[in-house]
Every structure is written in C-alpha cells, then in structure tokens.
Amino acid sequence: MKFSIGLIACALLASAASAPALAQQEQQAAAPYQTISSETFSKASSGAALVDVREPSEWAQTGMPTSARGIPISSTDFVARVLAMSGGDKSKPVAVICRSGNRSVKAAQQLVDAGFTNVTNISDGMMGRDGAGKGWLAASLPTVAYVAAASAAAQ
C-alpha cells in the first residue's frame, strides 16, 4: 500500500514538473502570428500587404516602406480598414510595421482577434530594436515620402 502511494506521488510530481514545459510548447505551436525582421520580410516573396500602423506625423518624418499602406493603429476603424484593404478576405497575408515593433505587436494581435489568419509582425520596425533587428531604415530598404492627402491638409 505504501509502495502504491509512493508511486502515485512520484507520478503526480513528474506530471506537475512537465506541465509548464508542455504549456510552453503548446503556446509556441499555436503562435497567433508570425514575427520576422524587416530584412527577412523584404527578402520573402510572401505577397503580404504591408500596413504601416504609425501616425501620419511619423510617416512624414521618415517616409513609409514603398509598398506600405498607412493605417494608424490609433484609428477606431483600424481593423475595418485593413479588412477593406484585403478585399474582405481575412486569409490574405497581412504584415504590420511600426517604429520599433511595439505597436505592431498590438496591431497583429488585433487582427488575429478579428479573425485574420495570415498575419506577420515586423519586429524591428522602421527604426530597429535590440534583439529584433536593425530596422527598415538602417537596412536601407526602399521608402517613399509621405504626402498628406489634400482633404486632410485642408482640415
């Protein structure tokens, strides 16, 4: 009887010790979006639509990635605008970029939460971040100057 209780206790301890590792593996396997550097994104031929989630004042300072469409994450209709950009297809690949990778994480998560299934976060953003990459600008990736729309400038 004592031997059986000891075996059960050992089994429970072993199970409890391996639970965090299993939970971490499951979390990694079920990552809701892909995270890559700007250089990796530029070399990939994924066909993803690129969304710059920074503010217009930031676009004016640095320009925007050549292929990007500016949709600020601060917009109340952010997800709706990305959905319209993708033609209503939440399975189309969408990549998000910001200044240093912080807002793009939030943008990627908002899109995943809204049902988008092919989302990529550009982790180093335009300016770079330690451990994530040197950034779009330092990598000398193509940009285009931002020119505010005439209707926005008139306001």
Q: How would you describe this protein?
A:
This protein has 155 residues and is an alpha/beta fold. It folds into 2 domains: 1-30; 31-154, Rhodanese-like domain (Oxidized Rhodanese, domain 1, 3-Layer(aba) Sandwich). It has 6 helices and 7 strands. The chain has helices at residues 2-29, 38-43, 56-62, 78-85, 102-113, 150-154, and strands at 34-36, 49-52, 64-65, 68-70, 94-97, 119-122, 143-144. A 5-stranded parallel sheet has the order 1-6-5-2-4. A two-stranded antiparallel ribbon has the order 3-7. Strand 5 (94-97), helix 5 and strand 6 form a beta-alpha-beta unit. The protein is globular, with a radius of gyration of 21 Å.
Structure characteristics:
155 residues, alpha/beta, Oxidized Rhodanese, domain 1, 2 domains, 5-stranded parallel β-sheet, two-stranded antiparallel sheet, 6 helices, 7 strands, disordered C terminus
Tell how many strands the DSSP assignment holds: 7
Estimated structural class: alpha/beta
Unreliable sequence segments? 6-29, 151-155
Overall outline: globular
Domains counted in the coordinates: how many?
2
CATH fold name of the largest domain, please?
Oxidized Rhodanese, domain 1
N→C terminal distance:
82 Å
Percentage beta strand: 5-15%
CATH superfamily of the largest domain: Rhodanese-like domain
Overall average residue pLDDT: 83
What's the level 1 CATH class of the largest domain?
A: Alpha Beta
CATH architectural name of the largest domain: 3-Layer(aba) Sandwich
Largest pleated sheet:
5 strands, parallel
Helical content band: 40-55%
In order across it, which strands form the biggest sheet? Answer: 1-6-5-2-4
Tally of alpha and pi helices: 6
Radius of gyration: 21 Å
**H-E string:** HEHEHEEHEHEEH
